[in-house]
């Protein structure tokens, strides 16, 4: 296994695809997707473009769909939800498809959608991601941070590091053997340093500060929690993610 970290979708190599690609948007798109699927969403369908989202979701029965959209951290007018994972209660979401477009997270998923396997990772479902990797052993893995409009995001990098940190421990290999690029080593060092203060780190990050200004304090607290969901969003067809069933049964002790 070789793990490569790309801080933003723009850094993905122009040529080639990995065996497994993981999009990360801790604040907040991939945290929201994992939460929606954990409470029984039928699927999550991602869009970069709001007009396309409207067009595709229009063909869906109104009681079976929810539209979630965020721009600049705020809810898109006329949509059911913004991008808060805390809106994803069982009552609101179970049995429905979440049609979602966000500034950066859905763009990262779109950028990797041609990989053989596409996963959505966050701190809250880090262990489910690692269990999948241990069970399936993909040769090359790309972890792609969503960043913010092309720039680096601390919270996505620390999550990439959390995945590699636990993977390395479970495999018992050296960082030199596991890391595909320097970014993977740096991300793991970041997690190693901050693993007991993840909420503090998220509060210090640029996007964390932006969300705090929008009064999303509880979202930050929720998204900073490690390993609280065993739900793994996996792409079933381009742009459509469902809850992976097999990861839940994989009995791999990675703690
Ligand atoms: O950029 C994104 O995709 C979002 O997750 C940003 S926000 O946290 O909803 O503001």
What this model shows, in words?
The chain is α/β, with parallel strands linked by helices and 255 residues long. It is built from 12 helices and 10 strands. The strands form 2 sheets. Strands 5-4-6-3-10-9 form a 6-stranded mixed sheet. The chain has a 4-stranded parallel sheet with strand order 1-8-2-7, sandwiched between helices. Strand 4 (65-71) and strand 5 (74-75) form a beta hairpin. Helix 5 (126-136) crosses helix 6. The longest helix is centred in the middle third of the chain and has 18 residues, at 154-171. The model is unreliable at 247-255 (pLDDT under 50). It binds (2R)-3-sulfolactic acid (3SL). Residues 25, 27-29, 70, 73, 83, 102-105, 146, 211 line the site of (2R)-3-sulfolactic acid.
How would you summarize this macromolecular structure in one to three sentences?
The chain is of the alpha/beta class and 255 residues long.
Give the topology, please:
Layout: E1 2-6, E2 20-24, H1 29-38, E3 43-46, H2 50-58, E4 65-71, E5 74-75, H3 90-93, E6 97-101, H4 105-111, E7 117-121, H5 126-136, E8 140-145, H6 154-171, H7 175-178, H8 182-194, H9 198-204, H10 206-213, H11 217-223, E9 233-237, E10 240-243, H12 246-249
Parallel strand pairs: 1-8, 2-7, 2-8, 3-6, 4-6
Antiparallel strand pairs: 3-10, 4-5, 9-10
Helix pairs in contact: 5-6, 6-8
The structure holds (2R)-3-sulfolactic acid (3SL).
The site of (2R)-3-sulfolactic acid has 13 residues, from loops.
